[in-house]
Design brief:
It is built from eleven helices and eight strands. It is elongated. The protein has an eight-stranded mixed sheet, sandwiched between helices. With 265 residues, it is α/β, with parallel strands linked by helices. The chain has helices at 13-25, 44-49, 57-61, 73-83, 103-110, 141-152, 165-192, 197-218, 222-229, 235-245, 248-264, and strands spanning 6-9, 33-36, 52-54, 66-69, 93-96, 116-120, 130-136, 155-159.
């Protein structure tokens, strides 16, 4: 169990998913986790379990070592500027989860030279299955391990360059929504061909999980596994071809690129 004290500033949907993942894994003593939000009502169930909650950001970071800032891009710099007098460069490690806000912008808003990281987890943190991309200009191995250890508690981590953080947001964080929409469509198709919604959901979700595990464990290209189930004149290739004729892959790629361009703007 890690002994660091953690402050999660702005516990919205992503922040709450991270907290739930930490609770379930018991990686940190719950009394070492402090979460902030303007309206504390949505965090009260965490407080009952032992997590500290407050609407005072400066109080939250006072005893913390890791500061996880889970605020929206439009207000993170303002909040960090307000917190700046309370930030101690010798003690604090700051991790921003805000899309499109660079390490340079964060450092300028704080006006202090401290270890700053950017990270992009996703809401699968709730069930300890997030993939978190991390970047930093900090080369201190001990601090790097502390940050990685935090996010490894809710899934897995990948170290990337900062210029890829927006792309990581699209396929890693937005990607959750893309996959869920695909799953929903498969369930709807299953209902149309005869299954009730509950049974279709069980079949589809396990199929998606199985497909992911094949790629993760076997480390094969998706087409390798696709070729195994597309027999000549079979129903699988017929379905795949119909999807492609209607722009399945193209629509997904265009959606990913559109999301990326939205961040760039």
């Amino acid at each position: 169990m890690n002994s660091e004290k953690v402050a999660i500033i702005g516990a919205g949907n992503l922040g709450k998913s991270i907290i739930q993942g930490l609770i379930d894994t018991k990686t940190y003593p719950l009394e070492n986790i402090t979460a902030t939000k303007r309206n504390l009502k949505n965090l009260e169930h965490f407080e009952k379990l032992g997590v500290k909650i407050t609407s005072d950001n400066s109080a939250a970071i006072k005893d913390a070592e890791l500061i996880i800032v889970a605020l929206k891009p439009h207000n993170i710099l303002g909040v960090l500027a307000e917190l700046a007098p309370h930030i101690n460069p010798e003690k604090h490690i700051l991790v921003s989860l805000a899309t499109g806000i660079s390490i340079k912008q964060i450092r300028e808003s704080i006006g202090k030279n401290l270890p700053i990281y950017r990270a992009m987890p996703n809401t699968a943190a709730d069930v300890q299955e997030s993939v978190t991309c991390i970047c930093s200009e900090d080369y201190n191995m001990e601090r790097n391990e502390k940050v990685k250890s935090f996010f490894n508690a809710i899934g897995s981590t990948i170290q990337i360059n900062e210029d890829l953080m927006e792309a990581a947001t699209v396929i890693g964080a937005c990607g959750i929504a893309y996959v869920l929409r695909f799953i929903r469509a498969m369930i709807q198709g299953g209902i149309e061909i005869g299954f009730d919604a509950n049974t279709a959901s069980k079949i589809v979700t396990q199929t998606v999980k199985g497909a992911s595990e094949l790629l993760i464990q076997r480390e094969q290209h998706p087409e390798y596994e696709i070729d195994k189930v597309t027999t000549p004149k079979g129903c699988t290739i017929a379905g795949l071809n119909e999807m492609e004729h209607n722009g399945f892959s193209s629509a997904l790629i265009k959606g990913i690129v559109t999301s990326y361009k939205k961040i760039e703007k």
